[in-house]
Structures are given as C-alpha cells and as structure tokens.
Design goal:
Structural class: mainly beta
Distance between the termini: 14 Å
Shape: elongated
Number of helices: 0
Helix content: under 10%
Number of strands: 6
Strand content: over 45%
Radius of gyration: 14 Å
C-alpha cells in the first residue's frame, strides 16, 4: 500500500503466526528481470488471531540504488516459518507512477 505508488510503498500481508517469520519480496520487470530484493522478518503476532504485517517498505530503487522507471512490475512475496517449516509464495502486480 499504496499501489500504484510514486515515491514509497509498503508490502502488507495477513498471517496467523505467533512466531517470527522470514519475509522476502522480489520485484521483477514484466520480462522477468529481477530489479530488487527486500529481506526482513516480522515480529511475532498474537496467538490464534490474524495479524497484519507491514514490516517491509520500498522507495522504488533497484538493488544498485537507482530509481527504476515508471510502469508495471511483478513482485513475489515469500513468507517462511522456520518454526513450522512452512513457506508460502504469492505473485502480484505493482505499478509505479
């Protein structure tokens, strides 16, 4: 949120884990070129309830620190629980204005 964005966005997702989660977001051009990888961890949520994680933000710069161009990108959100030995991945579109 926001999507589309101009200068800044955050990657939000819901989860029901009380443990720490390893999170990564990879941003790709529509042709499949990887332009940015963001890695982080969530803090543990409350037990048996749904939590919203917004621990990852992005300023629209690539892995070299350069602003990427306006347009449509694809991102892959990967969330892993080492405690449960489970991993979930999801692909979504992202628009930079």
């Amino acid at each position: 949120y926001p999507n589309p964005f101009v200068n800044y966005t955050e990657f939000w997702f819901n989860h029901n884990s009380s443990g720490v989660l390893d999170v990564s977001v990879q941003i790709f051009t529509v042709s499949g070129k990887l332009v940015k990888t963001i890695i982080g961890q969530t803090t543990g949520g409350a037990k048996n309830t749904s939590s919203v994680s917004r621990d990852l933000s992005w300023d629209g710069r690539d892995d070299f620190g350069d602003k990427i161009g306006k347009g449509v990108y694809v991102y892959k959100l990967k969330v892993r629980s080492n405690q449960l030995n489970k991993q979930v991945e999801k692909f979504e579109k992202l628009v930079i204005l």
